[in-house]
Amino acid sequence: MAFSIGEECTGCTACVRSCPVFAIAGERGKHHEINPLRCVECGVCGRVCPGGAISDGGGKTCSPVKRSPWSRPRVDEKLCSACGICVYDCVFRALSISLPRERGDIRVYAELSGPDKCVGCGICEKHCPLGVIVMIPPQSSAAETQVKEFSR
């Protein structure tokens, strides 16, 4: 079931600006609506709503969450084919195809090039045909990076 916006909505537009599939409409200062046919139930709107006006598909009121703990995509660069589907699907342009690491290298892959732009919706993970994208919290990402650096 799609998320919904309750009467507590003040029309701040935070949800409209953050929705990756443009499922929310409304004028500033007026009650907003979520189109249930467009909603992909990613929960971004509930995380950004400062007034707790958004409920999930089960009717539970969402609470605002600071951006720092939101999950981010991690791409297995060895298995990524650089097809570009995730890059195309990311409306916030948080993903891109990498440049080769050195001259003569032809290996490229999708990468999170704009972590500050990512809203953690998980659309990239859902649409990856190879299943090489996984959404993980930033703390896990930092720990994995340290392990990678250590094992080199």
Q: Can you give a write-up of this model?
A:
The protein has 5 helices and 8 strands. The protein is of the alpha+beta class. It has a two-stranded antiparallel sheet. The C terminus is likely disordered.
Derived from helix and strand composition plus strand pairing, the structural class reads alpha+beta
* Radius of gyration, CA atoms, in whole angstroms: 17 Å
What is the number of E strands?
8
Largest sheet: 2 strands, antiparallel
Per CATH, which architecture of the largest domain?
2-Layer Sandwich
Shape: elongated
Brief digest:
With 152 residues, the protein is α+β, with helices and mostly antiparallel strands.
Q: What is this structure's SSE topology?
A:
Layout: E1 4-5, H1 14-18, E2 24-25, E3 33-34, H2 44-48, E4 54-55, E5 72-75, H3 85-89, E6 95-97, E7 110-112, H4 123-127, E8 133-136, H5 138-151
Features:
152 residues; alpha+beta; Alpha-Beta Plaits; two-stranded antiparallel ribbon; 5 helices; 8 strands
